[in-house]
Hints:
By secondary structure, the protein is an alpha/beta fold. The chain is built from ten helices and 14 strands. Strand 1, helix 1 and strand 2 form a beta-alpha-beta unit. The chain binds uridine-5'-diphosphate-4-deoxy-4-fluoro-alpha-D-galactose (UFG).
Amino acid sequence: MGRAGSVLVTGGAGYVGAHVVLALREAGWPVVVLDDLSTGRLLPLHRDCSVVLGGVGDRDLVRETLARYDVQAVVHLAASILVPESVRHPLAYYRNDVAVGLALLEACVAHGVAAFVFSSTAAVYGVPERSPVDEEAPTRPINPYGWSKLMFERVLRDAAAAHDLPFVILRYFNVAGADPELRAGPLPDGPTHLVRVALEAALGLRPFVPVFGVDYPTRDGTCVRDYVHVSDVATAHRLALDYLLGGGAGAVLNCGYSRGHTVREVVAAVERVTGRSVPTRVAPRRPGDPPEVVADARRIRDVLGWEPRWTELDAMVAHAFAWMRRGRPAEAATRRAG
Ligand code: UFG
């Protein structure tokens, strides 16, 4: 495996991105972050890499960055990621998550990038027929966010076949937690996923957790998801690069633990970890919520040798709690003016 150049991480100032940067730096990779800071934040950890402020859709900037930093591999994380927003603004999602990525791919092909890792999502499966869901299951997204990710997967696979661009697609399940050393964590104004909502309720920042549906055909009537620690997700990206630069063939890999937790189990974990009570209130089902989404994650272990470290729900909750309580360092407030 040659390490002649650097790794470009688009969206490297985002939640998953910051953890990927940590994992790559720990493995000795020179890292270049491309981020427009529209949702991401710069943290002290970013002092350890090169930061290019700008959008992935800026073709000249991308071309210049690939050349200037001698980019050997690309991890493409920059994206719009909110399901309800994607329903209200589908065109923005198709632009940000498909068209912009296409421009990036063209630049990567022209530059001769040796490895491309793409951040996809379990949302490509829509409402899975089976659980655990494996990578061969039908892909039938039920919202523009899922469709935009699936479309980019298709574009990437076709481009890879025609232009010799080795790729790994990682389909994340429910990413949660924070760096155990608290160098990175969920963004302060990031999406309202369940673990965050429950922690905010524990901290008294919101009065209760709405439990969206208690009559699903699951063990306690609430939805089951496969929560995966963000640091383990980050490690999967590092392993994917090693795999590709070692000659590995294109692969689509679920990134989850093959173990589901209900909404009520997550709330109980938050109570256990924080030692505080978390009020809940039964709420109507949220449209488009599948009853159960759990990964069949055998392939990622086989192909990448991924050995996740933080599979206990309590660890994810504890790390996220510690990050939220600590607040963010002063530098974290750095935002591009305007
Ligand atoms: N939930 C609640 N109350 C809340 C928030 C969530 O009951 O306040 C429930 C949801 O109904 C769902 C579960 O908790 O059953 C998890 O919900 P999240 O919003 O945390 O996450 P999702 O499973 O909806 O979404 C995640 C990713 C998406 C991705 C999707 C694919 O965040 O980006 O998985 O399945 F598209």
